[in-house]
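Hi P.,

Sorry for the delay on this. The queue was packed all week, but I finally got your sequence through. Input first:
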Amino acid sequence: MRVTGIDIGTTSICAVVVESETGVVTDSLNVRNEALLSVCNPWECLQDPDLILTQVRHLLENCIEKHAPIAGIGLTGQMHGILYLDRNGRAVSPLYTWQDGRGDLPYRDEKSYAQALSDLSGHHLATGYGSVTHYYNVINGLVPEDAVVFCPIHDYIALSLAGRETPLIHASDAAGLGLFDLRKGEFDVAVTRAAGMSPEMFPQVAKRNIVLGHTAAGIPVAIAVGDNQASFAGSVATDRGDILVNIGTGGQISVFSTEPSAGTALETRPFDDGTYLLVGSSLCGGRALALLEEFFRRIVRAAGYECADMYPLINSLAEKFADLDNELKINTAFCGTREDPSLRGAITNLGTDNFTPEHFVAATLWGIVDELYDKYASEPSARSLRSVVASGNGVRKNPVLRRMLEMKFGTTVEIPLHREEASYGAALFAMATIGVYPDLDAARRIIKYS
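Then the structure:
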């Protein structure tokens, strides 16, 4: 039996076809997200939702044509952004993506819109969160007149494929919008009213994973889920561990838990069936290594030479990390943190004996690892590990980074055989929802590792 999982990212859209019995990816299709719109303000980041819908339909038609019959469809995507819908379920606005910066604009009392709503609500919010975007739009009269509800992009796609008129969203997406009560499983109505926002404009939240409806061809469409949750489900097999470390352009650590976080270092996000992911993000992550590669390339260029790719040299220098004395220290918070965007990185313990390229490479890699590990270690519920699963090109393309993760966490690090973890996880959620497996835990047992 084959199930399709679709991940609607900001820059690309991916569809995978997964064999439910073996977990093998029969096909993987990836296209560039062409929906970015021209904007009038530098802080805006908008996309055309109906162009995204057209791209998804084309991908899905391709999957069906090549691999029919398809038993079910799962969806995930950028979970903080929103678009507005009318009473017929049609898009009446652009997609305001998670990168939209209107929430950081000054509002009043020297606070931004995001800060003002955070203070009013008691919820930690940031620009790009759907509730912050809507708050700004309400105050500035930018909500379309015929809008009756807003939702994330993948929920709009799921609604459209399933033939629905109103969105019904997973708790993982609801939490990504902000102003969501984890314990009650619903949006904070009192806060939305106090902020001048109609609670009816917030989408309805499902109490369990359900089939939203069927495509015109009769294929069941499962409720969409957040991309962080889909990536975890698509990477971490039930019997392989409790932690996912993703190092790509950014960095993220997700820890499975049966209880919300007891501390402040990790954000609590709903996962599945009353469980949670405790999540910490580094804004720079793998980009720190890209900055170092660019630094080396500029030196080569300044000397009159051209080199298209310095990563082979960086990987070669990284192999020497275990033999280096007087370790250099680099804090890789070059882009700040979610808690304090004004923070910057730092280099310490720099001396005449460690001012070398290999020391800088090793220290950058350790800085990436340390920033994520420190978030995990500061969590009161942190416990002994069975293993760690890692994903993202930062780990796949740098074996030393994998070894450093193993040394820091004191356990083995495994990497999924498939590369498209979020779309794969969406397929697993769909398998559990349509009844191929009794639950998500059972579906996750088909994950294979390299």
